[in-house]
Each structure stands twice: as C-alpha cells, then as structure tokens.
Amino acid sequence: MDFNSPVISLLLHFLLLVSLVCHVYSSETSGQNQTFLPNEEFHKLKRTIKMHLRRINKPGVKTIQSPDGDIIDCVVSHKQPAFDHPTLRGQKPLDPPERPREHKQMGIEDYNFQLWSFSGESCPEGTIPIRRIKEGDMLRACSINTFGRKLKRVRMDTTGDGHEHAVGYVSGDEYYGAKASINVWVPQVESPYEFSLSQIWIISGSFGEDLNTIEAGWQVSPELYGDSYPRFFTYWTTDAYQGTGCYNLLCSGFVQTSSNIAIGAAISPTSTYNGGQFDISLMIWKDPKHGNWWLEYGSGNLIGYWPSSLFTHLKDSATMVQFGGEIVNTMSTGAHTSTQMGSGHFAEEGFAKAAYFRNMQVVDSDNSLIPLPNLNVVANRPNCYNIQEGTNNGWGNYFYYGGPGRNVKCP
C-alpha cells in the first residue's frame, strides 16, 4: 500500500480527527475531576448538571425500566430534542422517503433486539423511545460542555492521537448512502476512557474545519454509558467535531421516527466465539426528494433522519464512505491497551471467530444500492488489529477485521 498516495494521506488525516479521548484534553477543559472540586464548586457543578439534564431529558407519556438499568422515556415525537434546533423549531417528523432499490442479498438473518424491549414493553404510537440520561452519566464525562461529543480540537502533533482503526473505504466519486450487515460482539475495554466501536461513516468536506460526517453502528463505551454492553449509536458533525453534533439524541439535530428502537440502548443477543453470529443491518441514504439523510436499522425499520439543513457539504453528496472498527488507546498502563476491536481476534481466524462486515454497498445517484467499486482496506496498527477483504455470492463485498490489542507483536 502506498502511504504517500493522496487517498491514503486523506484517510490517515481523517483518522486523526475521529472520536473522544478524555485524558488528552481534560486539563484544557472546564471538567476537572469532580472528586477534587471544592465544596462550593461541586454544588455549583451539580446545579449545572441538573439544568442540563432538564434540557436533554424530555418528559415522556410512559416510562419503561430496562433489565440493564436503563430508563426509557416514551416522548411525543414532535417534542423530541431534534426540534430544539434553530432550523427545525416548530417542525414535525417527515414521512418516510422512497427506499433505495437493491437486489436481494442472501446471508445470515439479522437480529434487531434491544434489552429494554425484551419484556414485550413498547412505546405508544406517536411517541419515540429515548434513553434517559442520569446525573452519573454526566459526572463520568470530561466536562459538561463535552458530554456526548467527540474532540472539540484536533491535535495534529501526535501520530493517531490514540485512535486505531481497521477500515474499508471507497472514495473518488459521489455517494448517496451506504449499507452493511455487522456482527455484534462484546469487546473488552481496558480503561473507562477507552471505547471500541464498529460503524459506517458517510463523509464529505476537506478534512479541515468543514468536515461533515454521519455515523452509525455499535459501540462499547464505559464512559458514555456506564457499562460494557454493546449499544446502537449514531453521530454527526459539520465542523470536524469542534462544536456541532453529538452522540445519539444528546443534542438537537437527528429526528427520530421509530417507536420501537432506542438509540443508545443495548443490543442483544450478541455473537460468541465459535458459536452463534448475530448481525445488525444498517443503511444510511439521502432522500432524493428532500435531501435528508435517513437511517434504517434491520429489515425496513426506519429510525429517523439527519435533516439536510444541518450540513454544508453533505447537503449534496458524500465523497467517501468508510466501514470498520475503531478503538482508543490511552496507554493507561504505559503499554499498548488490551482493549479489543470486534471479537478481539484477528481477521485471519475467519467466520465465527473474527468480526465482519458483509453485504457492503453504496447508494448511487439513481437511488440504487450497488456493490462497492474499488474497496480499499487499511489498518494503522496491523500487529494490534488487522483486516482482510473478500467477495462471494452470498456476502457480496465483505471483510473480517479486529484484534486483541496488546500481544507479543503489539507490546
């Protein structure tokens, strides 16, 4: 692979931008370790948190207690956080758009279960399920201002900034969406301020301050959620993570329409080594009529949309699509992290042992799903996490990826 090529250079530049490492900038933000705050400052912080929680947590018409400790509030759809956004105020959710055309793909059935709905509970029609944010969630964050967000500033003076990836990508054309099936695992995460995720990125912009991204997948993030469950998540930004966008529904912007899937909720069942493999299928695509970017989870289950008014470059099309895994390596023990990516096993172990993306496709200008043209794969620390691509009749474009992190070749 030519790491001096413009495409690889652009990709590595992007990899420097993505995600959150608390310890990198905690001393530069207002979020000191709350344990050591003076008593007066601590009470001031608690009051600020309560005010922030009142803004985030909308009153529901029904409350559901999940087995994992989550509280799900069923919020009237037009009162959800999205409509606090200045460009969306006073609006209501739009009707579903025309779905992209595709040839039927064969493969493992995907599962769309979440722990909160195992008991048969559901939200009434006209409402959406929202995971309630608690005081403890905010106290785990680096600061109130950065809660639910990725890095505000990009540090260009370090290599990788602690983020390690194994991804497949396409670039050099106009893309109007992407789809893939991803098997879900429970990777071990070494430090509370590290995470492990697998996702789709829809990308446009110059990879400077005007970077636009739309992201969706599953993640294990003890800091954000307070546990080690794999959870369905979304993200967006229009300024390279500096001030816009957030995870899930933690800020205004994403408009949810689904009444049976909660963004940020735990996914179950999950895949097991040498055992059953359980997928989630995700599709993001641009509505040709209104220009909004819609998200589908599972078979025909529309979650909602990112309004085109949120974006600059993504008002038109994407210039790159990525699929794959990412971890954060904080070196908390002085050695490489043992945080796992995917299943925690290398790509060459194959089916039922390594994590995979399968049936990867992109949406073209005719609103049709097509196989990936010229898929490239890259792993920036292949001795720690790697990736191997392939193609077959059942899975179309696919790859295995992941790894254990620290090992004899990755000290």
TrEMBL record:
InterPro entries: Glutamic_endopeptidase, Neprosin, Neprosin_propep. Residues 1-26 form the signal peptide. Keywords: Signal. Residues 157-411 form the Neprosin PEP catalytic domain. Residues 83-103 are annotated as: Disordered. The keyword Signal applies. This is Carboxyl-terminal peptidase. It comes from Medicago truncatula (Barrel medic).
